[in-house]
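User: Fold this; tokens only.

Assistant: Input:
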Amino acid sequence: MSRKYLMGIDVGTQSAKVVIFDLEGNIICDSRQPLRKMVIPAPLLAEHPDDDIWDALKIALKATMERFQTEIQGDANAILAVGLCGIRCCRVLLKANGELAYPVISWMDKRLNVPYEQIDAYGDVHYVTTTSGYLTHRLTGEFKDTCANYIGWWPMDDNVFNWSDDPSLYETCNLTQEQLFDVIKPGEILGHITPQVAKMTNLPEGLPVVATAHDKAVEALGTSTLDAGTVLISLGTYIGAMVHGRENVQDAQHFWSFQASVPNRYLYECMGVRRGMWTISWFCEQFGDNVLLEAKKLGVSIETLFEREAVSVPAGCEGLLTIHDWAPPVEAEFRKGVMFGFDSRHTRAHIYRSILEGIAFTMKNHVDKMIEELNMPLERLVLSGGGANSDLFLQIFADVFGVPVQRSQMKSSASIGCAINAGIAVGAFDSYEEAIGKMVHSGDEVAPRLENHKLYSELNKKVYQLAHTHFDPILKSLSKIVD
């Protein structure tokens, strides 16, 4: 029997990633194309420039296929299917022919916090969809999408995994049925690669394109976090924490129920950190040529240089704490990021570690509320995303949470989830359990250091959890003076 393959497409906030796997979950080849910087027309607005999402995906697809066919000597026709995942919580406005009527509106844009409203600047809008719906149309020509990527102001009925039949919900969302794509469940075929796309990317014409879910749900599938008591923390531009469940929990106070990447299942997600890993990138970019030159001399990335320095900084950063509100929540748009507790001991390494600790503190407080409301134990954390490659970050999470922390062996958790959905659609696996067993490989695990956990718990309870109470009045006053 000739070797067979599955492809995963993961288009996130910062890049388009394409990975080809064999049926044992081994990466055969991959490619990543960075997206351009977000356009910020005004405070709290964010758009992807031009047709950047599609342009980046085309480049990543072609680069992956060229490597597959030349370096690996792979047969394109041995690729069984491709699973497609796009950034969640974006809004994509299309003309009747499927072309963009307006640049893709990012999940960081405040316009996504309210129902869709047609304005003159949008031009002639015929369809309103998601990034996965838009990319499906680009790849297949179909006006279809996954039902599991509609979060926010959409008339989606998460109990039946389809559009609602309640007219009042369409009125609330200010949308009509005619403006929406048809939807199918994860693990079902959306369409097939068109001749035009095959020519520009080297993908085989007719290759099935398979529905997945939103990016965090696909990542949860690709990290094998279906077991009760296991919480996934996804370290991306948006850092979120999730657990799987079987019921659509209504009116929860500390988490949301979303559709999972496993059909007819749900994903519970608590509040997270907006611009989470972005904050680390932002910090690294601010130190200029001298630090970059130092890192180059050592033959490492600037992040690796900072991590090496931060390992020697004691837990708690000798009193330096970071509050992660670089992108404030909807209910408190006046908030801004805060670093406090500086004294003469503090160096750039302290600042770097404090940013990491601030992320872990924030997620600890959100996760605790979620698992308490769900009445479930927290037995293990799984970290995914770029930040999971950091040994220091792994240990900080273990010490702050006080439980073992594991990372996946592979970096492309969302791509693996996409490939699993694709494999289910074409019969490569008999069940999701079988697919996970073959495709998902567990990686390193670290145990908490009890002395550090005790210190972090005291800092969290006596200082970090009280920070917003003290800083909010000051930041409210600041927002009235400076936008």
